[in-house]
Automatic annotation (TrEMBL):
Organism for this UniProt entry: Caenorhabditis latens
Compositionally biased residues, Polar residues: 11-20
Pfam families: CAF1 (PF04857)
Entry GO terms, CC: Cajal body; nuclear speck; nucleolus
Function comment: Inhibits cell growth rate and cell cycle. Induces CDKN1A expression as well as TGF-beta expression. Mediates the inhibitory growth effect of EGR1. Involved in the maturation of snRNAs and snRNA 3'-tail processing.
Main location (coarse class): nucleus
The keyword Isomerase appears for this protein: no
Quaternary state and interactors: Interacts with U1, U2, U4, U5 and U6 snRNAs.
Protein name: Target of EGR1 protein 1
Amino acid sequence: MSDEQAENDSEATSSVSSDTVPPFSEIQIIEVNRDNFSKIWPYMLVCIKSADFIAMDLELSGLGGQGLRSKDVQERYRAIRDAAHTRSILSVGITTMKLTHKSEKRRALRYETQVFNLLTLSEKPFTIEPSALQFLAKHSFDFNRLIQSGVQFQGVNCPLKTLFRELLGSSSTLCLHNGLIDLAFLYKQMYGVDLPETLDEFVNNLSDLFPDDFLPVADSKYLAEYQTRYTSSYLEYVFRRTQGDNEIERQNKRYHLEIVFPTPENRLKVLKDAIETVDIRLPEGFPDHAIPIDLHIHTCKYFAAHGFCQALRSAKGCKMLHDVDAAIDLQRIKENKKAFKRKRRYNNVVAESVAEKTGTDEAAWKDAKFEQRLLTRDFREQKRNVVTGLHRAGVDAFMTAFAV
């Protein structure tokens, strides 16, 4: 049988499932804790060994001083080193993605995805920063559950260390977001040794942890800044931007990803009991959803660029809109205007889809986008599809894997 015949047969046998895969709108997260760790651990190992991509994210008890933002990379490393020696890992997110189907006809790559959120508790004393507690509490982190059910990761025969040896020793591409911090904490707390004094020594030591044939480590923050040239590179922005771009590609029958989670009947009971679902739907009607005509006036520019607003901590606060989808909408509008101005397709998937629908008629595009004449005050009152539970390690690991 020829390769072409085999591919056609493969598409024929899976045509029903292939044609019925909807755009993904939620994340299924498996919480791993002290009570279920021994039962879920073998399943995690199987997922890691068979994955094409593995993403990892850590939630920490703090990051320390201002040296993390230094332009001097050596000074930044020293700040990370100090933090890793005094702070602790509170949870670990691991996402595995395995390519299970490729359709040339529909131009789709389907990945079976597993997301694990491990609660981890150090046996040794560590520093907790109030700002870190406030941040995690704001994003639904359950500290009582951590204390009661966190998996301890110290000790000689700790299974969690075995898990990370398997992860770092696999042939899958490891995906991180601003990953130097994560790698430093893992090095210190999972291997129980102090970090080297200099960044060069640390990089050399890291290389020894990975096998010779290891595929590149991919950092979604680096890719966003230096490959796709996004205007912002914080994780929520990068994910929502790539999620929207992927949906536009799907609607226009260009190459896109399909994300599927194992169906409930194919899961063990211990996995079913540990699953939590997080809603990540795009705005209703995307990408043709209406937006407020005065959105550019009321969106916080600092939040749009950095993912947080310093003014919120001040006495006066900030009354501007802090919404990542609004920030992305404004950026897409700027890109579309450039496309019309140049009278050619801009290097952006949204502008391409706009050009296909309205040609070079900017007025028609504006009428379609702003036809409902919404105002930002109405926008605030509307029930929006807001991603909940962001910045838990499992959710962040998924966003990192998808973005890469």
